[in-house]
C-alpha cells in the first residue's frame, strides 16, 4: 500500500500544496526521494508515473497558480526563478537530503533554474523537454510565436490562444518569421471554446507562457553544478519545439539527450485524456536514475 500525505507550505505570495507518497521505501530502501515536477501541470498529471515507483518515496506538487496552489501576490505572470524558489522550499521542508528529480516541460525549465542556484538540493535531475526558446537557432521566431500566443490570450481569450498553442507545440521544424501571418487555427477544431469568458488567469497562457519559454539556462552554473543532469526528449517528439530545445540544452551542457519512449506526455496514462507509454517511460526513467549507483 502507498500512503499519501498532503501538505501545505507558505511561501512569499503563494500557498504551495504538495503530496508525499510513502510506499515500500520506508521499509529500508536507500534511494533518495523522487520529486516529480511539471509546470503549469500540477500533481494530478503524475499519478500514473508515481504508481511505477512504489519502492521509494515520491513527491509531487502543484506549482504556484496551478491546481491547489493559490497565488496571493497579485502579479500577472510568473518567472522560472519564482518556481525554483518554491521547489527549494519544498525540498528543504522535506528534510530528507538531496532529491532525485524528474521534471517535464515547464517543470524542466524551473528545475534547471533551481539547480543553477542550489545544486546541493538535487542529486540527479532528468530534465524532460524543457521549452527554452532562447537556445534554439530560430530563437527570435520562437519567442515571437510565444509572445503572439500570450497576446492572443489577453485579447481573445482561451480558445483562440490554446488553438495556437496546440499548433505551435506539435509543429515540426523551425518556426517561420511570418508565423503571425499564417491563418489562425479554429478553436472548434480542437474542441475548444469559441466564446471569450473574460477570464485571464489560465496558468499556461496567462501566467507562464512568456516567462517559461523566455528562460535562458545558465550553462556555466549548470556545468559546474554537483548535480548530475540528464536532458531527455521523447522519441516521437523529434523536430518539435520542446524536443528541439532539449537537444540544444544538452549540447550546452556538453552531453547528448537521452531518448525516452513516446512523446512530450509520454509518462501519462490517461491524465487529461493523454495516453503515452507510461510503463516503458517509467522503466527508462528508472534506468537513468540508477545509472551511476
UniProtKB/TrEMBL annotation:
InterPro entries: AB_hydrolase_1, AB_hydrolase_fold, AB_hydrolase_sf. Gene3D superfamilies: alpha/beta hydrolase (3.40.50.1820). Residues 32-145 form the AB hydrolase-1 domain. It holds the Pfam family Abhydrolase_1. Keywords: Hydrolase. GO terms for molecular function: hydrolase activity. This is Alpha/beta hydrolase. It comes from Streptomyces kurssanovii.
